[in-house]
Design brief:
single chain, 271 residues, alpha/beta, Rossmann fold, 7-stranded mixed beta sheet, two-stranded antiparallel sheet, 11 helices, 9 strands, 42% helix, globular
């Protein structure tokens, strides 16, 4: 019964948003404004990952979920290996750190590691040298994936302000791959990709942009991996489950482990 009430409430909210003609919530607007402030003000940038205006969107892995990620990762990696990969994403921006076996680590980086391990599990015989990501945040996932694959080129697709933030964040690191930036609506074909990835971001795009992303970006990727929310049988605002299946070839759906939210899923595809 609670699931039914949830979906009725969700559909009413989607309908209200569509009637209102807005594709942006107040939290998203606040997020963009904050990113702009972090780009202009060095003091804000130095603590952007611990600011609530940013954490509500990207750095919101709970203590409990962070612990679950760590336990899951340790089934495959040693503690030292986990620490070494976490160190690949420097603590620029003063992120929240928690202790795991005596080491202070960022829970969001543990999520990125969990994603990297899951990709190697679901595509065990593939080498991904050209990767494209929609909704790249500050670039943490890209820096982590470099520890799992010999990446040559990485395309990061996000809002222009966010792309600038990633570029600034990367300036504190030394990624071995070549990287470029784009936006969904102004994207130009950069050739074929080995892997498309998106952690939640694709599933949060309005349906029109989802279709644009599939046509312009995803169709050029050999494999795809996404963590999705808004993955429902019917939706006014987003692609439905059936529309995912119609638009993404060889679609497979998996439970998210550990689960970040009860309705979230992992979807993979192969072109």
């Amino acid at each position: 019964m609670k699931y039914k009430k949830y979906h009725i409430k969700r559909l009413l909210q989607e309908l209200q948003t569509n009637v209102g003609g807005s594709d942006s919530s107040s939290s998203e607007y606040q997020y963009v404004n904050f990113v702009e402030s972090a780009l202009k003000d060095e003091e804000i940038f130095n603590s952007f990952r611990s600011d609530s205006r940013y954490r509500d969107i990207l750095e919101h892995v709970s203590d409990d979920l962070g612990k679950k990620y760590y336990i899951k990762i340790r089934e495959v990696l040693s503690h030292k290996e986990v620490v070494d990969i976490c160190n690949a994403v420097k603590n620029v921006g003063n992120p929240r750190l928690l202790k795991y076996e005596g080491s202070k680590l960022n829970p969001a980086t543990l999520r990125y590691i969990n994603v990297g391990l899951d990709i190697t599990k679901k595509f065990p015989n593939d080498k991904f040298k050209n990767i494209v990501e929609i909704g790249a945040g500050y670039g943490g996932q890209a820096l982590v994936l470099e520890n799992f694959f010999e990446i040559k080129n990485y395309t990061l697709i996000d809002l222009p302000q966010v792309n600038q933030l990633i570029q600034k964040f990367f300036s504190y690191h030394d990624p071995k791959f070549q990287y470029s930036f784009s936006e969904i609506e102004t994207y130009t074909n950069n050739g074929k990709y080995d892997l498309f990835i998106s952690n939640y971001a694709f599933s949060e795009l309005p349906k029109k942009l989802q279709i644009t992303a599939i046509k312009n970006v995803i169709s050029n990727a050999k494999y795809g991996y996404m963590i999705v929310n808004n993955f429902n049988n019917f939706s006014f605002r987003y692609l439905s489950k059936a529309q995912y299946a119609n638009n993404l070839p060889n679609l497979e759906v998996f439970d998210e482990i550990p689960e970040s939210y009860m309705f979230n899923k992992i979807v993979t595809f192969k072109n």
